[in-house]
Every structure is written in C-alpha cells, then in structure tokens.
UniProtKB/TrEMBL annotation:
GO biological process: cell division; cell wall organization; peptidoglycan biosynthetic process; regulation of cell shape; UDP-N-acetylgalactosamine biosynthetic process
Pathway, per record: Cell wall biogenesis; peptidoglycan biosynthesis
Protein name: UDP-N-acetylglucosamine 1-carboxyvinyltransferase
Gene name linked to the record: murA
GO MF term list: UDP-N-acetylglucosamine 1-carboxyvinyltransferase activity
Organism: Anaerovirgula multivorans
Broad class of the protein's primary localization: cytoplasm
Source species taxonomy: Bacteria, Bacillati, Bacillota, Clostridia, Peptostreptococcales
Residues binding phosphoenolpyruvate, per UniProt: K22, N23
EC nos: 2.5.1.7
Domain of life from the UniProt record: Bacteria
Gene Ontology CC terms, in alphabetical order: cytoplasm
Length: 423
C-alpha cells in the first residue's frame, strides 16, 4: 500500500485552490436519481468517495459520464434497480443517501445497513423515522433496510438531533411526496443548503434550508439541472491550519468565508491573522499559537470534521487546551497516533486535554479515518525528522491531491508507492 511521507517543512507560502465539497457532492449525486433528464455537475472533486457513489448510481441503472476531471453528467431516466448492495455501501456510508431518492422515484428501496465506522456507531434511526412519517413501511433483516410506499405523503418530522444525513435523505424523499413536509430541528450545514439549491434547480419547492425548519412542497416530477458544487470548507480549513502550524503566509483560494466562520474565529483567537482576499482567505502566522478550547457542535458550531486538525495545531500551542467532541462518540482515534509523535494528550470521556509542546518528532503512524489522517500530515509538517502515514486510502476519500497541493506551498511531502503496490 502507498504511504505519505512528510518531513519538517519551512513556513508554507503561496496559493492553494480548494476543490468542491465532498459532503455536498455525495448527496447531490444521490439526488440526481430523482430527475428523468440529464444533470450536469461542475467542480466535482475527483475523490475515491465520488467514484463509489457513481458506482452505486450506475448499479441502479443511471448513466454516469465523467466529462472531465471535475465535471460529471448523470442521466437517470432508466433506473431499473432499487437495491444498493453491501459491497458498495460498506465502502462508503454515504451510499445510504440513495434511499430517499429511490423511495421517492421507485416507491421502494433496499439498501445494505451502513454499519458503524472508526468515529462512532452512526445509527440511521432518524433517517428511518423520517421515511416512516412520510408513509413508508420499513423492514430490517439480513443486513438490509427495505422501504416501501405506494405513495409518500408530506408530514411534520422533528429530528431528535440535527443529523446532516437524515435531513438530506428526508428532504430528497419529500420532494416528490404529496403535500407539504416540514423538517424541524433540521441540520443547518452549508451542504444542506447546496443540496436544497440543486433540488430547487431540478424543480423542487424547498424553503428554509440553512435554518432549523425546512418546508418542502411536493411536486410531480423533477427535471434536469446544471449545478456547481460549493467549495469544501473542511479542505479549506485543513490548509488554513497547515499555514497556521508552519508560521506561513498562504492564500486559501475558492472558499465561502461565511461557511468557515467558526474556524476563522478559533484561529483568530489563537493569534493567527486571517484576511479576506478576493474569493480566498489569506492566513498569516508566526511562532507558536495561543492555546484554545474547542467544543464540536452541529453547524454553525465548530465542525467535528475539523476537530482532529485543530488538535494537531493545539499540540504545538503555548499552553493547555481542551477539546470536547459532542457530535461523534468515538472521534479521538488520532490521539494515540499523535502521541507517537510526542504530542501530550489525555482523554477523559469526550474531552481531550492537550499540553502544547515546543517540539514534535516524526514517526510511522496510521490514518484511522479521513480527518485523523489529515491531522497526522499536519503534525508531520512541524515534526523533527520523517513521518510516514500509512492507511492513506482514508485520506484519499476526502482530499484531492493533498500531497501535491501541500508541495505547491513548499511542504516536504510526497507519496511513496510500496513495493507491493508497484507489482
Ligand atoms: C457524507 C457527509 O456529509 N458526512 C458528514 C455528515 O455525516 P452524517 O450525515 O453521518 O452525520 P450526522 O449529522 O447524521 O451524525 C451526527 C450524529 O448524529 C447521530 N445520528 C445520525 C443519524 C441517525 O439516524 N441517528 C443518529 O443518532 C450520529 O451517530 C452522530 O453521532 O455530517 C457529519 C456531522 O457534521 C460530518 O462529520 C460528516 O463528515
Ligand atoms: C466523517 C466524514 O465523512 P463520512 O461521513 O463520509 O464518514 C468526514 O468527511 O470527515
């Protein structure tokens, strides 16, 4: 298997362009199943997860064409299968997002249960609660969830937690339901708004996306649309942290500053300077940052998807910081790997106490999940000697050309193919 090798790097300098958002494009690709006409998506990040959801769409009968590296065309007029198999869903949990569109379009869907992953058990009860409220009959068995409905009827659904995936799945099922659906305590993430915008471009009638109450008036059919995916706020945040850690001066280009508010506020609190410049954010830092306390929360709170990267940054802060993870019950897998690099962290339940160090040391480490992997690369940029990150398939799920983009900023980083993978 390939690995990413990082060596202590000079302060990063230059411009890095952020790709389209993974967490937007996955539900948007699932939503393209709702249209009987061609959909074109622009700024699609060329990622492993995108390949997987495209495989799922193809297996359902959609015709998916890559026009170029960042543009995809989907024709879903001949969907002839309503089952997403275990082999695909196990590769990526977000495959479960085809359930809502399939149920709306075909009146039935059979999807392998996604199961948990390194960051938590990640149940799907809220998705199912929403489908049931719309009149679907749900059966579970043999590792599959089956949903059936002769007709979906609009309904009022209160989510116990503002789940991103449940909000998306329910929204996609409700667009073709009869009458009005209201989702209360809905997730407010920018990716929800991006999906709602795409659905509205396809003919849906959705109001309130981006707030905690989303109203969907069902329509008879969905048409084709062309849509540009929003920039990836987590990828942007990761490069902002890279600039901050190395005392660099970097323009992180193609960002939506509004989506990065909690990240910008936290970096400023740590004495990192940030200025808006065109469509980008200039990040300037020098010396070790000030410590800070972080609590992850649903948007507009501090994103759990930036927790691991900030932990890497706090590990070199001048003092003690506390990080509380409230969204996922097990999102501290990176801690034991960071410790191998000399980071001083204690875990107490859902809190991590980090004593900032003057010096970290490179080590062989493994990426336990996507953002954990990013955090290890970031720590590697400021560690003495060589850091070798293995299990990089996790990183490749969500970062486009991470080593090339960082190298473009002057980082000492490269991908090393192992003997085995060269055979
Ligand atoms: C592909 C994608 O967009 N992934 C993002 C999405 O994941 P995802 O959509 O899976 O995250 P959710 O918002 O649904 O999960 C948040 C919390 O709710 C719980 N929960 C969720 C659904 C449910 O039916 N029951 C339940 O209890 C989960 O276990 C978790 O503890 O939002 C997360 C929270 O911002 C991000 O970290 C992920 O990067
Ligand atoms: C947790 C993440 O993604 P997923 O929901 O696809 O696992 C992430 O993007 O950090």
């Amino acid at each position: 298997m390939a690995k990413i090798v990082v060596e202590k790097s000079q302060p990063l300098k230059g411009t890095v362009r952020v790709s389209g958002a993974k967490n937007s494009v996955l539900p948007i690709l699932a939503a393209s199943l709702l249209a009987t006409e061609k959909c074109i998506l622009e700024d699609v990040p060329p990622l492993r997860d995108v390949d997987v959801i495209c495989e799922v769409l193809t297996s359902l009968g959609a015709d998916v064409k890559r026009i170029n590296r960042e543009q995809i065309e989907i024709m879903s007029n001949q969907i002839d299968n309503f089952e997403a198999p275990y082999e695909l869903v196990r590769k990526m949990r977000a495959s479960f997002l085809v359930m809502g569109p399939l149920l709306a379009r075909m009146g039935k869907a059979r999807i392998s249960m996604p199961g948990g992953c390194a960051i938590g058990t990640r149940p799907i009860d809220l998705h199912l609660k929403g489908f049931k409220a719309l009149g679907a009959e749900i059966t579970l068995g043999h590792g599959f969830v089956e949903a059936k409905a002769d007709k979906l009827i609009g309904s009022k659904i209160y989510l116990d937690f503002p789940s991103v995936g449940a909000t998306e799945n329910i929204m996609m099922a409700a667009v073709l339901a009869e009458g009005q659906t209201i989702i209360e305590n809905a997730a407010e993430e920018p990716e929800i708004t991006d999906l709602a915008n795409f659905l509205n471009e396809m003919g849906a009638q959705i109001k309130g996306a981006g707030t905690d109450t989303i109203k969907i008036m069902g329509v008879e059919k969905m048409v084709g649309a062309t849509h540009t995916v929003i920039p990836d706020r987590v990828e942007a945040g990761t490069y902002m942290v890279a600039a901050a850690m190395t005392g660099g001066n970097v323009l992180v280009d193609n960002v939506e500053a509004e989506h990065l508010k909690p990240v910008i506020a936290k970096l400023r609190e740590m004495d990192v300077e940030i200025f808006e410049e065109g469509n980008g954010l200039r990040v300037i830092a020098s010396g070790r940052p000030k410590p800070a306390d972080i609590k992850t929360l649903p948007y507009p709170g501090f994103p759990t998807d930036m927790q691991a990267q900030f932990m890497a940054l706090l590990s070199i802060a001048k003092g003690t910081s506390v990080v509380i993870e409230t969204v996922f019950e097990n999102r501290f897998m990176h801690v034991s790997e960071l410790k191998r690099m000399g980071v001083d962290i204690k875990i107490e339940g859902r809190s991590a106490i980090i004593e900032g160090q003057e010096k970290l040391t490179g080590a062989p480490v493994k990426a336990t999940d996507l953002r954990a992997g990013a955090a290890l690369i970031l720590a590697g940029l400021v560690s003495e000697g060589r850091t070798e990150v293995t299990n990089i398939e996790h990183i490749e799920r969500g970062y486009v050309d991470i080593e090339k983009k960082l190298r473009g900023l002057g980082a000492n980083i490269y991908r090393e193919e192992s003997q085995d993978s060269q055979k």
